[in-house]
Automatic annotation (TrEMBL):
<dbReference type="InterPro" id="IPR003156">
    <property type="entry name" value="DHHA1_dom"/>
</dbReference>
<dbReference type="GO" id="GO:0008409">
    <property type="term" value="F:5'-3' exonuclease activity"/>
</dbReference>
<dbReference type="Pfam" id="PF17768">
    <property type="entry name" value="RecJ_OB"/>
</dbReference>
<feature type="domain" description="RecJ OB">
    <location>
        <begin position="460"/>
        <end position="565"/>
    </location>
</feature>
<dbReference type="InterPro" id="IPR001667">
    <property type="entry name" value="DDH_dom"/>
</dbReference>
<protein>
    <recommendedName>
        <fullName>Single-stranded-DNA-specific exonuclease RecJ</fullName>
    </recommendedName>
</protein>
<dbReference type="InterPro" id="IPR004610">
    <property type="entry name" value="RecJ"/>
</dbReference>
<feature type="domain" description="DDH">
    <location>
        <begin position="82"/>
        <end position="233"/>
    </location>
</feature>
<comment type="similarity">
    <text>Belongs to the RecJ family.</text>
</comment>
<dbReference type="GO" id="GO:0006310">
    <property type="term" value="P:DNA recombination"/>
</dbReference>
<dbReference type="Pfam" id="PF01368">
    <property type="entry name" value="DHH"/>
</dbReference>
<dbReference type="InterPro" id="IPR038763">
    <property type="entry name" value="DHH_sf"/>
</dbReference>
<keyword id="KW-0540">Nuclease</keyword>
<feature type="domain" description="DHHA1">
    <location>
        <begin position="352"/>
        <end position="446"/>
    </location>
</feature>
<dbReference type="Pfam" id="PF02272">
    <property type="entry name" value="DHHA1"/>
</dbReference>
<dbReference type="InterPro" id="IPR041122">
    <property type="entry name" value="RecJ_OB"/>
</dbReference>
<dbReference type="GO" id="GO:0006281">
    <property type="term" value="P:DNA repair"/>
</dbReference>
Amino acid sequence: MTNKRWDYLYKTSNQSKISELAEKLKLPSAIACVLVNRGIETEEAARAFLGKSISGVHHPYALKDAQKAAERIKLALENKEKIVIYGDYDVDGITSTAILYQFLSEQGADVDFYIPNRSDEGYGINMLALQKIKKEGASLLVTVDCGITAVGEVEFAKAIGLEVIITDHHTCKEEVPKAYALVNPKQPDCTYPFPDLAGVGVAFKLILAIVLTLGYSAREYFDKYIDIVAVGTVADVVSLTDENRIFVANGLKKLQNTQNEGLRALFQTAGVADKPINAGMISFTVAPRINAAGRVGSAQLAVELLVTKSRQRAQEIAQILEEENHERQQTELEILKDALGMIADMEDADKKKVFVLAKEDWHHGVIGIVASRIVDRFHKPTILISLKDNLGKGSGRSVKGFNLFDALTHCSDLLLKYGGHELAAGLGLNYSDIDAFDKAINAYAEEALKNVDLTPCIQIDAELQATDLTLAAAQAVSILEPFGMGNPQPVFAINGVTLTAARTLSDGKHAKLTVTKNGRAFDFLGFGMGSLADQFHMGCKMDIAFTMGVNIFRGEKNLQLIIKDARMSVA
């Protein structure tokens, strides 16, 4: 196991505020402690956080240019103009395209959608696609989850007679496109109170703005698309706070009994149709199958899955995505093996602060996933580059404390293009510039990254005693859901337990530790931590960092304790 730092949040928490929240909201002290650790310190803020009410959704017109965009789309509806939605090929872009296409179709619009091919066209707007769209009769282009860096492309669109509305959520560069309307909460001059919407969230707010412009019920349309919005929001790993928390919480409720034929078929083929749908299931089961369309097949197919009314067609597409997801997994394993081999062969791997790895014909659709796996393993920012015809297409993932977008901006003279977020970004460059880019970004990291940033950190929300480990306590934790970026599943610590048994499961892959404290015995599971069973001797005193949840097996609910880290007791 990688050595991890334990950051005891509860040791610096305001104990009086914890006690006050626990008393006023009738909460267990540990839950109140988690809230305070999240910066939720008042009764009003806590009730809003726990309530997840749609009354907390901000007015769509508060987004800069949203009303302007809505009025232009209303005019296009009235004049029967052809509208084309230009999306991205990941889950965020696919769900964004699906909800806007479905909404405009239901308004009687002459509407189509276009998603570029990941391998042939790459991310974002391209001029050949714009020519094709214009040739087919469109006069209005609406982007979703892309477009904020397409300065030249928007000028070209205007020159050939295409008016452009951009909806995006990616970080803005110094120059932004001169589109008819630009809807992005990250614009420096946008005063929207929540800048962390996913692309699907921005597209959803545009729909709500159009709804208000048309004089319809916003609540009706909120309920209509919120299941798909939840899928895209979770999949894009944005902060599950503020509006995103409301979207996902309400969307998860609808997903339990969704009427969307595509999602129902997807749940069926994935084998989760009869299981509770939570954010984790979307992240690890649903999203990869939708993503597989854009990674190894056609993202157009995934949009069709989400908008089709035919159960038979939905089942056909879901089966195709299931097969493509299996293909994606195999390709991913092959690239991971290559990448780990490259790192093993590096003479200076330990000194590198950023891994930059490149190889001919790596599948561009999965290198981002592999980069994430390498970050998980080494806790270092990682960029994988697929080479073809002397050009490289790269995808990077980062660690907290290293803004990947800023790093790429610093190295922009070596790049043909780039874009993304703090923790994930894409780039393009010439093959001849890869070594220089590797040196440049590592030199930047030497200044920007401290050694402590490269050590994985586990943040401990609260220390629990043996009497706290109950099914009721685990059920209380669930009121803090949905969990994800910005609202991680709480991690607790129990200190000074005695190890009484240790064994491995699934041919040594997982570990099961039995410990005792104050006369009580508990089982802890360490998924992917089989080596734990041999690291500690029987009778030793241990500290365990863990999450607490409820496992349902054959209809019976049981306490489940999942190890995040374990070490010899420091007390």
